[in-house]
Amino acid sequence: MSSQDIPEENLPAAQDTAHGAVGVADEKHPFADPGLPPHEHRIQDVDERAAKRSERSVALMFTVSMLATIGFIASFVAIPHDKSVYIFPIGHLNALNFALGLTLGLALFCIGAGAVHWARTLMSDVEVADDRHPIEASEEVRAKVHADFKQGAKESVIGRRKLIRNTMFGALTLVPLSGVVLLRDLGPLPEEKLRHTLWSKGKLLVNMNTNEPLRPSDVAVGSLTFAKPEGLEQHDHGFQNEIAKAALMIVRIQPDNIKDKRELEWSHEGIVAFSKICTHVGCPISLYEQQTHHVLCPCHQSTFDLSDGARVIFGPAGHALPQLRIGVNDEGYLEALGDFEEPVGPAFWERG
After folding, report:
1. How far is CA 330 from each of CA 200, 204, 265, rounded to the nearest angstrom?
2. Which residues face 94 on adjacent strands?
3. pLDDT single digits (tens) 282-299
4. Would you state the pLDDT for residue 23?
5. Is the pLDDT at 300 greater than 80, yes or no?
6. Cis peptide bond upstream of 89, omega within 30
7. CA distance 231 to 340
């Protein structure tokens, strides 16, 4: 609806005399100033019912933004990171990524769309012509800016349209929470996960190569054997995470050559089991020198003495390899007598 369709008595009384003014060409200004076209009032300027409809539309978009932000947080908490969903015609997508992108995009879009609709239908749309002025701000300019700001705040009707104001503040307050929640993805909280492995009392030591339980006779003096906990299979979900903590290297040393008293007590007939995970940055240790009983990490050359509690004798590793206490069950198989008594692998912030 244009101003020509509105009864004259409903139009605002004040008119901008600058609209429609045309400059005259002269010698100094050879091109005439065409002036501004006549201003046409919007339906919202003259019909309060239309203004209320626009107000409700803007408030609805801000409310949808708030709900979408809450949905973003709920999706982050409730949807498993490995769940997938089929979306036609795209195909299979990660459900968490899809939900996060959809809700966050909707929250931001509704704030922007609400602001645009507010500006186009309720804020003042009177065209203003202003002369250029020097860059430096004089006292008069600063006073004018302050006055313009106050006038703009008044024309935005934010004080009178409380529904828009309150829902906008709600949307702008909630949407930053999306970024706060995303901070959690800087890394999972370790909780107690790094302190425990799959090893427990009675778990058999299974040869990584043959996938068969180990007997003491399977471990020869000077040999290096890698083992995993009974029941852990390569096709299991989370196998890599679990083996990264539970992998063992087993060597057999003559009991007389074991220098550490606790190491001897936790061994069986000279068979000792230590974590395979280097305590520097978590590389798997695989190089064993049977004459010195030293093992070497291939990544940064940290060296451990397996005959002396796996203490560090060279390199950047900060502490000895954790030892697993082992024994033999009634059937003659090597078994664990509990879990590691300290976290395996590199030091971390929660290590006691």
Report:
1. 17, 12, 19
2. 84
3. 899 988 998 899 999 999
4. 62
5. yes
6. yes
7. 18
pLDDT tens readout for residues 203-260:
999 999 899 999 999 999 888 999 999 988 888 888 888 898 899 999 999 999 999 9
Q: Could you tell me the two tokens for 329?
A: 């069950």
pTM above 0.85, yes or no: no
The two tokens of residue 106 are 């909707």
List Cβ neighbours of 243 (8 Å cut-off, separation of 6 or more).
228, 232
Distance CA 107, CA 176 (A): 10
How many angstroms from the chain centroid is the CA of residue 132? Answer: 47
**Could you give the C-alpha distances from 33 to 18, 96, 195, in angstroms and in order?**
12, 58, 79
Angle, CA 336 vertex, CA 334 and CA 340 arms, to 5°: 145
Taking CA atoms, 200 is separated from 35, 184, 246, 270, 293, in Å, by 87, 31, 11, 21, 27
Can you give the C-alpha Rg of the chain in angstroms? 37
Which sign does the torsion angle of CA 132, 138, 141, 146 carry? positive
Give buried/exposed letters for 239-255 (b at 16+ CB in 10 A, else e): eeebbebbbbbbbbbee
Write down the pLDDT at residue 190.
62
d(CA 219, CA 204): 14
Q: Flag the least confident range among 12-26, 45-59, 60-74.
A: 12-26
